[in-house]
Design brief:
This is PH domain-containing protein. It comes from Phytophthora aleatoria. The protein is α+β, with helices and mostly antiparallel strands. The chain has a single domain, classed as PH-domain like (Roll), CATH 2.30.29. Helices cover about 25% and strands about 35% of the residues. The longest helix has 19 residues.
Length: about 140
């Protein structure tokens, strides 16, 4: 699968409550990495130490978020047992592109509840598969 990159807004916790910040997001394989947007024009590198979060998609499922709940159009969440991460796109077309890119890499369908036992089994199977591919 081709990597996908682009600007998304990510909902985080700020000093005065929830806050949307613009991130450069890179999806490669089953890992979604978020980088802060540079204030100054600098050369961007995916190997940069400026990465501030990454998400292994095997632990998440995709869900579109209601505009009223997110207070932003074109929002979606990656949901796991312990947490949900909320992003927003700039258009409906972009949301459709990210939805396709993410759901094609997720192991859990959107309508399945996330179970810690299943998540651990999926993780072990993926590790065994990747080790077998290396050998």
């Amino acid at each position: 699968m081709e990597p996908k990159s682009g600007k998304l807004h990510k909902l985080g916790s700020g000093l005065f409550g929830p806050k949307w910040t613009e991130k450069w997001v890179h999806l490669d394989g089953t890992v979604l990495k978020c980088f802060p947007m540079a204030v100054e024009q600098q050369i961007f590198s995916l190997g940069s130490s400026r990465q501030n979060s990454s998400y292994e998609l095997m632990d998440y499922k995709f869900a579109v978020v209601d505009e009223k709940k997110a207070n932003r159009k074109f929002a979606f969440q990656l949901e796991a047992i312990a947490k949900a991460v909320t992003f927003a796109c700039s258009s409906e077309k972009e949301l459709a592109e990210w939805r396709f890119a993410l759901t094609s890499r997720l192991c859990l369908p959107a309508d399945v509840p996330v179970s810690p036992v299943i998540t651990e089994k999926i993780r072990r199977a993926a590790e065994a598969f990747s080790e077998a591919c290396i050998l």
